[in-house]
Amino acid sequence: MSQGAGGGRILVVGDVMTDIIVKPEGPLVRGSDRRASIRSRPGGSGANQAVWLGAMGTRVSFVARVGAADKPHLEAYFKGFCVDPVLVADALLPSGMLVTIVDPDGERSFLTDRGANLALSPSDMPVWLLDDTSMVLVSGYSYFADGPRRAVHCLTEEARRRGIPLAVDAASAGFLAEVGAADFLAWTGGVDLLLCNGEEAAALSGTGELDAQMRLLGQHFPRVVVKRGALGAALGGRAGVAIDLPAPAVEVVDTTGAGDAFAAAFLSAELAGRPPEACLAAGIAAGSAAVGTLGGQPGQGLIRRAGTAPAARTAPTRS
Description:
Elements: E1 10-13, E2 17-24, E3 36-43, H1 45-55, E4 60-67, H2 71-80, E5 83-90, E6 96-102, E7 108-113, E8 135-139, H3 146-161, E9 166-169, H4 173-179, H5 181-187, E10 193-197, H6 198-205, H7 210-217, E11 223-227, E12 233-237, E13 240-245, H8 258-271, H9 276-290, H10 302-305
Helix pairs in contact: 1-8, 4-6, 6-7, 8-9
């Protein structure tokens, strides 16, 4: 991916959420009680990606809309992770909230109230930041509602005009099914890199077979990365799978934010000029480290643990 005129900054656009993480001790009992561990953590796909990028030492600015009462402490929080926050205060809507129910195997289900994120508008977009930006990363959640979608179109069209590469993380298989694959693919036309997990790849391509996913999605995006959880990750495009890497066996505490950690590490490595195999390996290492802790953002020691990556496995040449 070629860089634009900027000096290594990634501009992230996405949601700010407060994650309420619930780990029941067993199956929910309809109409009665179940003991559970309940914790509150900062979250949101775009926020997670920005914090991971900042913690990894990558210059990053983050654009989002939040409840007015939350803006001061959120700005301080992001600055603590070396993120330049470009937060717009909403006087009417509260900041978004997400309830995450974590199964014993670490898989998650979500209840989402996007709050002020839904009011993101074209006037909120810091087009001036593109003067010093080498890549724009947009969370797919920004495409699932009319207002945010218009806002990101405003920014991405200007970025494309300036030759700045664009990356999109598909974000949610559930919302992709709701809006429809065809519309999402049309909205993201011109994007250079698609990041998605296996379920999102299946929702967008209509198939569960990895190589077929790559070939079909490669008709819309020059490059596609499929995050495959415990199976690792793959990079490819119109010609199919180009690189397929395994993931290490790790204890899973919570998979929240693992894909965001992957995206941050992959793009950080790419911005540093590392080869594709190394970028994919860095993403897998970060995602594998992230599942070992509760919540979607890095804790103490997590960046260090994300430094070991598996060896690359290059797919055979296909005719």
